[in-house]
Write a structure and sequence with these properties.
- By secondary structure, the protein is an alpha/beta fold.
- Among the domains are: about 100 residues, no CATH class; about 70 residues.
- It is built from ten helices and seven strands.
- The strands form two sheets. A five-stranded mixed beta sheet has the order 3-4-5-6-7, with helices on both faces. A two-stranded parallel ribbon has the order 1-2.
- β6 and β7 form a beta hairpin.
């Protein structure tokens, strides 16, 4: 990927972050650098796997809800990014309706904050509360008969019941897919990466090495050591190793 294209993609991702609920929660510049590193390591023509970025944001103690919104939103904008993307497995399993709700929530936030274009809001409805009854509801049914107030109450009751049920289902799903707390690991193979600190989180191993090692070690040596550490991580049930320099927390490599 050309440097100019990568910079444009990083800028677009930064704009998405500034629209999201992650503002003030995570270091947006660091998250943009993590995205840039993933772009750099993704071979041309291959889809960008978003799971390392997803795990990175959770590792920064970001709430999973906003992170899910960001992941699903940028996936929905593949054409604008000009880049194919792969959602993390737990998000790829969401239905189209569930994804659409996450995208709508993200888009609505952008429209309300002015950071993203949205639909024009009717001034007469701007101050309407969520519980208010819509005055524009049709007063006749499909057969031209006057609809009684009781029928609207029944409809609202059914809708309310459905929303309560949907909320219960969502709570159950969120609890089932909630990220597990990091687990301290011991990866001491001398042939592998010299992890000063290693933690397992959400099927990824976070390995922190010294900045001196990251800056001075030739890439073939790093790749060889990374392969050893990645094999050890897979034996423990983890899918990948994300390597950060411990002094500045920059994402250096993903294996």
């Amino acid at each position: 990927m050309e440097e100019t294209q990568r910079q444009n993609l990083v800028m677009s991702f930064s704009n998405v972050l500034r629209t999201s609920a992650l503002v003030g929660v995570v270091d947006l510049q660091r998250a943009a650098l993590a995205f840039s590193a993933l772009l750099e390591r993704t071979p041309d023509g291959q889809p960008l796997a978003l799971e390392p970025l997803y795990d990175f944001l959770l590792e920064q103690n970001a709430p999973e809800g906003p992170v899910r919104e960001v992941m699903v939103f940028i996936k929905s904008r593949e054409e604008r990014f000009g880049l194919k993307m792969e959602l993390p497995p737990r998000l790829a399993a969401l239905s189209e309706e569930e994804r659409a709700k996450l995208v709508a929530a993200f888009t609505q936030r952008g429209a309300s904050t002015g950071t993203q274009s949205g639909k024009q809001v009717d001034p007469s409805k701007a101050n309407r509360r969520p519980g208010d009854v819509e005055e524009a509801l049709p007063q006749k049914d499909d057969f031209g008969r006057e609809r009684s107030p009781g029928s609207r109450v029944k409809i609202l009751g059914v809708v309310a019941g459905f929303l309560v049920f949907a909320g219960i289902v969502e709570v159950v799903v969120v609890k089932a897919t909630a990220p597990q707390p990091p687990v301290v690991l011991s990866l001491t193979d001398p042939a592998g990466l010299p992890c000063v600190e290693a933690k397992g989180s959400n099927r990824s191993v976070i390995c922190r090495v010294t900045k001196a090692f990251a800056d001075s070690t030739p890439k073939p040596v790093v790749d060889a050591k990374g392969a050893v550490t990645a094999a050890a991580a897979r034996s423990l049930g983890y899918n990948r190793v994300m390597v950060f320099s411990i002094e500045d927390s920059h994402l250096r490599w993903v294996f």
